[in-house]
Amino acid sequence: MDHHPLKPSSPVKLQWFVCALASFLGFLFFSYALLSANIRNSATLPSFQHLVSNHAAISPVAEVEYYYSSVVTNKEIRALAPVYNAAVVPLSSSVEGECDVFDGEWVYDEEAYPLYAARQCAFLSGQVNCRRNGRPDSDYQHWRWKPKGCELPRYGGTEMLERWRGKRVVIVGDSLNRNMWESLACILYSSMQHKSRAYVNAKSHEYKMFRAMDYDCTVEFYWSPFLVKLEQRKDHSKVLNLDELPDTAQRWIGADVMVFNSGHWWTHRGKMRAWDWYERRGRAAEMGEYEAFNRAFRTWARWVGQSVDTAHTRVFFRSISPEHKLENWCYNQTTPFTNETYKQYFPRTMISVVERNIQKMRNKVKYLNITHLSEYRKDAHTSVYTTRQGNLLTLDQQRQPNLYADCSHWCLPGLPDTWNVLLFASLMGTPSNVS
Length: 435
Description:
By secondary structure, this protein is of the alpha/beta class. It is 34% helix and 17% strand. The chain folds into 2 domains: 43-89, no CATH class; 90-428, SGNH hydrolase (Rossmann fold, 3-Layer(aba) Sandwich), CATH 3.40.50. It has a 7-stranded mixed β-sheet with strand order 4-5-6-3-9-12-13, with helices on one face. Strands 7-8-10-11 form a 4-stranded mixed β-sheet, with no helix packed on it. The chain has a two-stranded antiparallel ribbon with strand order 1-2.
C-alpha cells in the first residue's frame, strides 16, 4: 500500500512538499511586490496622453526633458502646445542664499535712469533713437528694474570699463542683440573721459565694434540671426544648414564674454522668411520650424562644448525679447504693465526648446532670462519713432501705426540698458538675499 504524501511517515516526500510550498509563497510575494512597483511607477511616469490632459500640475520643462530625449517632433509639439501656452517654468539663475535678479518689478527712478543721454552717443542708430525721431514722452527712459529680495547695484560705464580692462566682449545674434550692442557701447562710451580715445565701427549691418583704447576693452557685434549657416546657392535659393555654424564663428573664439540670442527669425512667414529649405547632413530636409530650431540650437550647443574654452570664456544666452502686438499693442503706450494679465504671443514652445537645451549643457552657458521682465515694457518699443529701410518714417507713415509701428525693437536709452546691467551683475556675482 502506498503512503499518503501528507502523512509524516514519509519524511522525504514531506520535505519535498515543504520546499514546494515555500517556493510557491515566495513567487506570490515577488509577484505582489513587482505589481506594486509598477503601480507606483505608473503614477510617477504618466502616459503622454495623461500628461497632456493633466499639465497644470507638471513642470513643462520636466515634460520636455522626459519625452524629448533627442529631438522634438512636430506631432508631439502640437500635442504639447497647450501645455506651454498655459505655463512655462523659466530657468532660474539663483541658488540658495542668492537673489534671482530676473524676478522683480519696475520702479520709476528719475534720478538714476537713464544711464546716458542719446546726445552723448553720436553713433546711436536712427532705428532706436526715439527722442531724436520725435517721440514726445521720455518716461520710458526712467524705469529701474528692482529684483525681489535684493537691490541690484547701479552699474555704470566706468565700472564696466575697469572690470573689462583688457577684455573682449562678443555679442552674436539678430537685430535685438544689435539693440543690446548699441546699448552697451553707449553705456561705455558716454562714461569715457577722453572720448577721442574710443574707436567705433558702426556702419556695417553685419559687424559692429566699439573699442575703448585706454582700457584695451572691445565690444563686438556679429549678425547671425539663426546661429547656424544661411547660404545662397548659385541658383539663388537660400538654404539654412542646420548642421553648421556660419563662417564668422571662427572670429568669435577667444572672447572673454560671449552673448548669443536667436528666435525671432525662425517664426517669419511668407515674404519675411529668409530661407527656401533646410539642409541636414548634406541633403534637403523637411521639418517644422520648432524641430529645425531645436536641431540648430543643438548644433550651436555642440560648438560651444567643442570650440569654446568655458574655463576662460563666460558664455551667455539671452532669452527671447518679447513683442507687443494685438491686445498688447505698443503704439501710444507710455507706462509699463503693472500686473500680469497681459497676453504673450511669442511661441512658448520655442522658449522651452531654448531652456531645455541650456539645461543639458551642464552650466557651460548662463541663461540671461530677460523675457518676463521685458514683457511688462509695452511702453519701451520704438513704435512709429523709428526708421524703415534706413529712412525715418514720414509723418504720413507715423499716422498709419497699424502698418508701420515697430513693436519688436526698443528705444535707447531704454530697456536694453537693463539687459546689460543684468549681464554685468551676472558676471560680477548675484546679489545676496535681503531679509
